[in-house]
Amino acid sequence: MIRVLIVDDEKLERVLIRKGFSWEDHGFHIIGEASSGEEALNIIRLEKPDVILTDISMAGMDGLTLSEKIRKIHPQAKIVIITGYREFEYARKAVQLGVEDFLLKPVSMEDLSKVSTKIKADILEEIEKERSIERLKESTLAEQAIILESLLQRVVEDESLQGAAKEKLRASGLYHLTEAHTVWNMRIREQNGATDESRIHTVRELLGNCVDEFMVFQHSSQNLVVIHKSISMEDSLEKARNIHESLNLRMKLYATIGISRVHHGVDELSPAFREAQKALSASVLLGRNRVITFPEYESILLRNEEKREMDWDDFTFSVENHLEEKVMKYIDQYIDFITSSNITDIEYYRMMTMDLISKASSPLYAIGLDLEALYGEDEFYKNIRSIHTVGEMNDFLKESISKIMALHKGRKSKRGRKVVQDALDCISEDLYSPELSLGFVAQKIFANESYLSRVFKKEVGQSFIEYVLKKRIEESIRLLNTTDDKVYEIAEKVGFKDSHYFSLCFKKVTGVTVKEYRRGREDV
Predict the structure, then answer these.
(1) Residues 167 and 282 in one domain
(2) Which of 503, 211, 302, 444 minimizes the C-alpha distance to 224?
(3) For the CA atoms of 372, 449, 474, 429, what is the dihedral angle to 10 degrees?
(4) DSSP 48
(5) DSSP H/E element including 58
């Protein structure tokens, strides 16, 4: 209901206006009456009416003075002046004050109906514009969030992107979160062993309730990565354990969480992420469905204080580019080192196996795969637990890393293209559905949303939103050229719930409004 205030120092006039027109039937609600300007201002401050009908000639404060004061305290209000004057000077001043319309005394109910109908239409149009702007803002914010999430995912893998990350984080008001932070790598599973994508949003909400300041995004490995602002590892550990307990008890989810040490600045996001990955990998020895810190991971490796360092960058490069002979030499060197260390601890063998496979599998994350692609999660950990000798360790490493190279070689080049093609097919099928969105398509083709956003832009040369918008506007142009459909009908046909938003998008793509386009076609 549109809320109306009647202001007149003559009671009879107020009664005639209230009783003479069926306000409720036309979508209006009279919130009150005022017999003076001062009384009206008090009501306006409290009630904020949408429409104010005021007599121009009142004792004390006249209608024009009241209108001037209303503009200062409630500028959104629609003001209608009721007057017996026809002088130009009054009309000119009223227009300067932004008065919507005039009603001449004695007030005709026909005139009152016309004025109220016009004002109602204006108010509803303004409300719809505001809603459209809000929807546009939400859409823009959602796209910015996708861009930031995609960038963070790449930053934790590639330290060369830190400069771009700094600028994006500053623009988003999130840069301060990285000044002192830990990174968490969270593997979430249903208690029956399956991953439930629908729980990701719920987990995000849980983080919001338990953690003061954080960023979270879904990694291409399907794990959640949390950047937690924290000056102490103890604080992060306590928060992570609280979340772990809530996931287990309240949501019936298994969660294995690896936590890095405290790091400082965007430059250390990537090292912190690698620490969280390593802490998570220690679950093969320490057990899953628990919180594991990087120092716990280190304590296992430090059993051999003279652990030989390999050129890990070259090793992962060789795996990624399928340099099989070089990779096998690295594995042989690794095994020789383990053998010469004279350590016979079975758990140490398993930890070192997991450590090397974790490093070898890191290139898979960039194409949306992880260790589970080798055997399945349960089978993989079962195979790790079956290692008892250096020989078994050697065999398993060569078998697994060969599979990683084959997966990477076979899917790196074509997986992105296949995912994009599947997405394009889905878009073509559902192009005019109002439900079409990046999340809708990702779910339908069983792809990670952030990964799809990234590879779609790379392969198509446009963002998902830009591509869909262009296709819909192209279809709307065809309909404008071949039919006499109204604008709102065309908007609905091409997938827009709101005709005003459609008009905004049409001008954004074509450079002209729908009316200008149609007029130009008619002129031709």
Answers:
(1) yes
(2) 211
(3) 50
(4) -
(5) none
Same domain, 186 and 257: yes
What is the rounded distance in angstroms from the CA atom of residue 13 to the CA atom of residue 306? 98
- For residue 404, the enclosing domain spans 303-424+434-446
Integer Cα distance of 225 and 275 in angstroms: 12
Q: Which of 315, 312, 384, 306 is nearest to 352 (CA)?
A: 384
**Residue 255 neighbours by CB under 8 Å, 6+ apart:** 186, 187, 188, 189, 243, 244, 247, 248, 289
Contact, 269 vs 162, CB < 8 A? yes
Give the per-residue pLDDT at 370: 61
Is 454 inside a domain boundary?
Answer: no
Q: Domain end: 127, 146, 178, which one?
A: 127
Name the token pair of 5: 């205030």
CA–CA distance, 33 with 35 (Å, rounded to integer): 7
Do 307 and 287 lie in a common domain? Answer: no
Specify if 455 maps to a domain: no
Q: Cα(first)–Cα(last) distance of the chain, in Å?
A: 45
Report mean pLDDT in 10-residue bins for the chain, 524 residues. Answer: 92 89 91 93 93 89 89 90 67 70 84 90 87 68 58 65 62 72 85 53 75 77 83 89 85 87 86 88 78 86 56 83 88 86 77 83 65 67 86 92 79 68 90 89 80 83 90 92 90 90 89 86 58
**Which uninterrupted H or E stretch holds 235?**
helix 233-249
- Six token digits for residue 469: 């918008």
Quote the CA–CA distance of 376 and 379 in Å, as a whole number.
5
Query: What token pair was written down for 404?
Result: 């990683």
- Residue 325 falls within a domain, yes or no? yes
Is the N-terminal amide bond of 271 cis, ω within 30° of 0?
A: no
How big, in percent rounded to 5, are the helix, strand and coil portions of the chain?
A: 65, 10, 25
Please tell me the pTM assigned to this model.
0.44
| Contact assessment for residue 292 and residue 278, using Cβ atoms and an 8 Å cutoff | no
pLDDT of residue 294: 93
Domain end position, chosen among 80, 111, 127: 127
Containing 99, the helix (H) or strand (E) segment is none
Buried b or exposed e, range 281-292, using 16+ CB within 10 angstroms: bbbbbeebbbbb
| Radius of gyration of the chain from its Cα atoms, rounded to whole angstroms | 33
Report CA 64 to chain centroid distance, whole Å.
Answer: 48
Domain count, the chain: 4
Query: How is residue 243 written in tokens?
Result: 């979340």
DSSP state of 216: E
Length of the chain: 524
Residue 269's H or E segment, with its range, is helix 269-281
9 with 72, same domain: the answer is yes
β-pair partners for 227 = 183, 215
Please check whether residues 318 and 408 belong to one and the same domain.
yes
Q: How far is CA 456 from the centre of its chain?
A: 17
